Structures are given as structure tokens and as C-alpha cells.
Amino acid sequence: MNKKLGFLFTAISGTCFGFLPIFAKLAYNNGGNTSTVLSIRFTVAALIMWTISFVLKIDYKVGKTKIIHLILLGSIGYNSTTAAYFYALNFISTPLVALVFYTNPIIVSVLSYFIIKEKVTKGKMTALTLSSMGLIMIVGFSIGNVNIVGIAYAALAAFTYSIYVIVGSRIIRGINPIIVTTYVTTGCSLMANLTGMISGGLIRIPYTAWLYSIMTAVFATVVAIITFYEGMKRIGPSQTAIISTIEPVVSTIMAAVIFNDILSFPQIVGGILIIVGIVVLQRPEEEVSEELGELTVEQIEVD
Question: Which of 53, 174, 255, 302 is the most exposed place for a label (fewest CB within 10 A)?
């Protein structure tokens, strides 16, 4: 029963994360823009996380140095990732953004080899090969129909998120995940609002755009994160990571239903290759160290 509940929580988390680009696109279609949607998302999420921390009486005093690092992790690391992700939605379809972005577990593995000298395994090489083939299928067979700027933004989001994961894996050790998320979303909120004010990107938007922006905060941020950790503590990191591959699947299906964003056959094949590569990457192997499992968990932490 405990494992079944873990599977359910993780599936809910993956579904909620999968709705992120859907809510963002709906906000855009109803008069929102990237700066304003990001500002609302992170400000509302930070307020909710602080409320949860106080209600549950979780100790948020983790030391000035840790607090600064966590806020910087959010304001620079995760905020830049989300900005690139949301900008990509202005140029290419929701499924393509989700699929390209979801190559980040593979990128994390490659960067880990060069930065922290993590061991290369057959699983990693297989996953990298499948992911690369998938991207070629997505972009190469539809180059005339795909906006390269959008692909570049989505790829940038995947890369910056991978850096965020590797740096964050060291910073968040020994800190309650709820407190980590609270400070990270706070940093994101500060940066999103500051950037929006300086650039003049913050605008008055219709209430429907507000509604969808708030939904990104409530469902695709707070609910997604809390259910993720509830699932993880019941079924462990490997199974959680595998089930989380439902995210791009949900994004693709819902985009087809809501926006009529239908992928071409080569793009569908490419997406399947990417998802299979991620599953292979998470498959338990004797060569895969415990650190890789922990890193994968932290990678999904604030999607």
C-alpha cells in the first residue's frame, strides 16, 4: 500500500509538472507575457512555501551562507532556466519545448563526468546515444517547420538546468527539501520581479492570464514539488525518476488536445527515443553509484 501510494504521488507530481508549459501557453494566449507570468508564478509559489514552512513549524534558519547560496541558486540558476523555457514557448510548440528540455538528465550525466569526474557507464552512453538520435529526429526531419530560436531557448533551458542541478547537489545537502524550495522560489521571485521592473516587461494582464499564471504556481510548482517528495520517500529515487518521465508525455498529449499542437511522425519517434534514454539512464546498474541516484532526485526537485 505504501508503494502504491508512492506511485500515485509521483504520478500526480509528473502530471502537474507536465502542465507547466500548458498553463504558461494559456497565460500567453490570454494576454500575459513571459516577465509577468514568471513574476506571478514565483511570487505566489514563494508565499505558499513560506506559509507551509510556518504552518508546519519547519526550522528555516539554516545559516546566512546557506541562505545566500540558496537564494542565488534560485535567482540566477533556476530563474534563468525558467526564463529560457518560457521564452521557447513563444517560438515553438509546447511538446517540442518539453521534449528538448527533458534531455537535461542526459546533459547532467555528461557534465558530471567532466566537472565532478563521475564514472561513465554503459547506461549513460546508451542514454546519451538515444537522446542525441531523438533530437536529430525532432529537429533534423522538420527543420523547415521548426523555429531554431525556439529550439535554442529550449536547449539553453536544459543546459542551465543541468548546471543548476550539479551546483545545487552540493548546496542543498542536509537541508529540508521544503526549506530548499522556499528559499529557491524566493530567489526566483526577487530576480523575476527585479528583471521585469528594469526591462519594463511587467504589464497589466487580464484576469484570465492571472488565473493561468497562478495555476503554474499552485499546481506546476507547489503541488508538483510536495507530491514529488512524498512519492520519493515511499518508492526511492530510481523509481521516482522513471515515473517522472510522464512529464513530457502529459505536455505532449495536453498540447495536442488544447492547442492542436500535433507532432510529426519523426518528432514522435524522437520524443520516444529521448524518453527511453531517460528510462535507461535511471535503470539500476552495478556501476551506478548512490551519488547518481541522489543527483537525479535533486535534478527534478524544482521543475
Answer: 174
**Which amino acid is present at 12?**
I
**Look-up of cell digits 518528432:** 267
CA distances from residue 193 to 21, 82, 121, 184, 200 in whole angstroms, order as listed: 20, 14, 42, 14, 10
Q: What confidence tens digit (pLDDT) does each residue in 104-162 have?
A: 777 877 777 777 666 767 777 787 788 778 777 766 555 445 788 999 999 999 999 88
Burial label for 84, CB within 10 Å (0-12, 13-18, 19+), is buried
| 280/267 Cα distance (integer angstroms) | 20
SS (H, E, C) 179-207: HHHHHHHHHHHHHHHHHHHHHCCCCCCCH
The continuous run of DSSP H or E covering 118 comes out as none
Q: Please give the biggest Cα pair distance in the chain.
A: 54
Which three cell numbers mark 193?
520581479
The residue with cell 507547466 is 20
